[in-house]
């Protein structure tokens, strides 16, 4: 009977020591019953596993929300986020010179967008939208209270402007045919407002409203827990998506930033 070459001496294993624990485990398997062909199959399989792990999308190991966050951060400028890569198109928020009139335009258009998002998930053209009802992050009611306060101060509440109107028209159409892309907008709108949006709100309020805190920037309950609940729902929904559908969702991030940015800059109008 021909002797069996030990796996550890096989030329197919002269690949260098892998840092991957799973790969090392495979190398330590007993050689009894192995043939050269079998050994070659094990090496190929283990190498493929290592390569697959290396090629994971940024944030993928932590869930799809982390993938969305990673892509969104890249679209910030360096003064907005340490991961930011986008060139600034204007002065940083600290140097903004907002007006009450511009702030009102921003609040009115924001209310229109949040009302639309809430209506879309309530109507639920796709089953996954059901997951995003009554999250505690809803903002339209709070914005309604803020606009009523402005009215009592003697301010004229403007009609929604083209940035907000264009965005909600886009969202309505998108939500009827493309759930992955719509959920990208849902995520970016709510999570951006809870983070950078709050910071901008405080700074604008300090310059225009004597630091009054609007209802738009307050939530009932623990905000961090509300956000975590929605992260969990988003990750759960995305588990049923193919890699292509996930990539399609990520690709919509830039469009989301374009629309939200046009509304944000109403503050300076």
Summary tags:
269 residues; mainly alpha; globular; 10 helices
**How many runs of DSSP E, i.e. beta strands?**
0
The geometry reads as globular
Secondary-structure element pattern, one letter each: HHHHHHHHHH
What is the helix fraction of residues, given as a range? 55-70%
Any overview of this molecule?
The chain has 269 residues and is mainly alpha-helical. It is built from ten helices and no strands. The chain has helices spanning 21-27, 36-54, 64-74, 100-123, 140-152, 162-177, 179-208, 223-238, 243-251, 253-264. Helix 1 packs antiparallel against helix 2. Residues 1-5, 10-29 and 46-54 have low confidence and may be disordered.
SSE blueprint and pairings:
Elements: H1 21-27, H2 36-54, H3 64-74, H4 100-123, H5 140-152, H6 162-177, H7 179-208, H8 223-238, H9 243-251, H10 253-264
Describe the structure concisely for a colleague:
By secondary structure, the protein is mainly α. It has helices at 21-27, 36-54, 64-74, 100-123, 140-152, 162-177, 179-208, 223-238, 243-251, 253-264.
